[in-house]
Design the sequence.
């Protein structure tokens, strides 16, 4: 990725000595010709897009074993600690599931016709 960004710096340094007083100038080294603009896109824009793609293509969470908010643990877990934590989380989820299933159904009240108010 650094080499992609170095291409941009080298291109800028190589064209820095070129300057023109007119924006519409088509003279040599004015950087307004089609070939100059093509070189600009190849050496300036393409490396930026490649660098962005290199950041987004690999799955960093899977590669570095991090979660949604990053690596927030103080130290890496051993396989035994990981197994213990996962068992505790599964037990907690099962407890929550059972408490939801065992909760009583909401009370349903029946109203008679005389309880309704008519205006």
Sequence:
């Amino acid at each position: 990725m650094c080499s992609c960004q170095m291409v941009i710096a080298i291109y800028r340094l190589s064209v820095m000595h070129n300057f023109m007083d007119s924006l519409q100038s088509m003279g040599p080294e004015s950087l307004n010709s089609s070939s100059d603009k093509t070189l600009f896109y190849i050496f300036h824009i393409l490396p930026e897009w490649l660098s962005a793609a290199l950041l987004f293509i690999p799955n960093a969470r899977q590669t570095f074993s991090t979660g949604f908010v990053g690596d927030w643990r103080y130290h890496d877990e051993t396989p035994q600690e990981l197994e213990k934590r996962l068992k505790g989380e599964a037990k907690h989820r099962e407890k929550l599931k059972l408490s939801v299933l065992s909760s009583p159904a909401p009370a349903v009240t029946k109203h008679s016709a005389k309880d309704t108010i008519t205006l």
The CA atoms of residues 1 and 51 lie 5 Å apart. The two ends are 76 Å apart (CA to CA).
